[in-house]
């Protein structure tokens, strides 16, 4: 079932050490880069004008975004993690 807020994170296909956040909203898949920054931190490249928030790891980033709701600089809230079938 495709629900708004369904998301998964995968390795970036174009940037080494980066990830891609895929987020479903209104039947469309929106993709955001999760990029490495200095001091081994990572951040989501969100909408323009949204301040960068840096995190130590993916688990912390996801937890923070799950708790933040729609006030996150993304098109919608992260709500439903998608399990990837190998």
Strands, helices and their partners?
Blueprint: E1 6-11, E2 19-25, E3 28-36, E4 42-44, H1 58-68, E5 80-81
Parallel strand pairs: 1-5
Antiparallel strand pairs: 1-2, 2-3, 3-4
Report the count of strand segments: 5
CATH topology: SHC Adaptor Protein
State the end-to-end CA separation: 19 Å
> How many domain regions?
1
Task: Give the ordered list of helices and strands.
Answer: EEEEHE
Spatial order of the strands forming the largest sheet: 4-3-2-1-5
Q: Give the number of helices.
A: 1
CATH H-level superfamily title: SH2 domain
Low-confidence regions: none
If classified by CATH, what would the architecture be? 2-Layer Sandwich
Secondary structural class: alpha+beta
Helical amount? 10-25%
| Averaged pLDDT | 91
Percent of residues in β-strands: 25-35%
Task: Write down the Rg.
Answer: 12 Å
Tell me the name of the CATH class. Alpha Beta
Shape: globular
Quick one: biggest sheet? 5 strands, mixed
What does this structure look like?
- With 86 residues, this protein is α+β, with helices and mostly antiparallel strands.
- It has one domain (6-81): SH2 domain (SHC Adaptor Protein, 2-Layer Sandwich).
- Helices cover 13% and strands 31% of the residues.
- The chain contains one helix and five strands; from the N terminus they run E-E-E-E-H-E.
- The chain has one helix spanning 58-68; strands at residues 6-11, 19-25, 28-36, 42-44, 80-81.
- The chain has a five-stranded mixed beta sheet, with no helix packed on it.
- A hairpin with a 2-residue loop joins strand 2 (19-25) and strand 3 (28-36).
- The chain starts with 5 loop residues before the first strand and ends in a 5-residue tail after the last strand.
